[in-house]
Fold this protein.
Amino acid sequence: MTKGLLHHIELYVSNLEQSVMFWGWLLEELGYEPFQKWDGGQSWKLENTYIVFVQAEERFLDIAYHRCRVGLNHLAFHATSREHVDNMTKKLEERGVKILYKKQHPFAGGQQHYAVYFEDPDRMKVELVAPEL
């Protein structure tokens, strides 16, 4: 049954090419598969949920995204284990992705919350969190 589960999330991005490179790699690492592609966007799907990235129109690019403004703060994804978080952290660092809260990593969310926090090309916060022990 899918009642209540997210159907899809659509994010407008400032640079579709950069976002597709970043998110495509990340989502495929997490088990998503390419789903839809057209001139102004692309999506990836996992089971019944898909995530869409759309190029924002030039006229809307004057104010950059900021996670502390009204609206979406971050997206959090399930990891399979703490080792998965550690492996993904290493891969993110190798790709030059900014890891947030480095001094508290991997417990920036508290001692019972094992996760890595990082930013996408538009500086949206993304979290990959391990299951609780």
